[in-house]
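PROTEIN DESIGN WORKSHEET
SECTION A - STRUCTURE
LENGTH: 144
TOKENS:
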């Protein structure tokens, strides 16, 4: 769990350092703006922008029952963030599995991606895609 928040924490610390240097140099307004900007960036790279993750086993079981897509992701991945933002509300129509908190999920991704932990990896109706086109996936999720 700590690994999932490490990048966001690092961004916050850097932001506070930059903001403090701005305030110390006599620009408190600029310091506040920098602190807000870095906090927004930290939220974007944190697990907060993603739907609640479940385990790979739970996602596979549920997907078998209802046919929803499974999206394997990890915090801080720019392609995962892009996919999540492009999916919008349709993201809730898939099961999200964090490969950093579930070794079984990481193994599933390695099996799909030729031994690499390349995310986002999407499994839907028995077919898998590594780093799929967000617009195409959004259409698929909305039609299901």
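SECTION B - SEQUENCE
RESIDUE ASSIGNMENT:
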């Amino acid at each position: 769990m700590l690994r999932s928040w490490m990048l966001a924490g690092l961004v916050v610390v850097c932001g506070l350092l930059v903001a403090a240097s701005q305030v110390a140099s006599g620009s408190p307004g600029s310091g506040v703006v920098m602190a807000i900007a870095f906090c927004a960036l930290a939220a974007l790279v944190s697990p907060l922008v993603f739907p609640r993750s479940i385990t790979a086993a739970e996602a596979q079981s549920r997907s078998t029952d209802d046919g929803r897509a499974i999206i394997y992701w990890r915090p801080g991945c720019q392609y995962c963030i892009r996919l999540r933002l492009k999916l919008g509300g349709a993201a809730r129509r898939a099961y999200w599995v964090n490969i950093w908190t579930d070794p079984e999920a990481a193994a599933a991704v390695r099996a799909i991606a030729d031994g690499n932990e390349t995310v986002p990896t999407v499994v839907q109706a028995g077919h898998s895609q590594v780093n799929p086109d967000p617009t195409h996936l959004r259409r698929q999720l909305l039609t299901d």
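SECTION C - NOTES
Helices lie at 2-24, 28-45, 56-66, 78-87, 103-112, 134-143.
The two ends are 32 Å apart (CA to CA).
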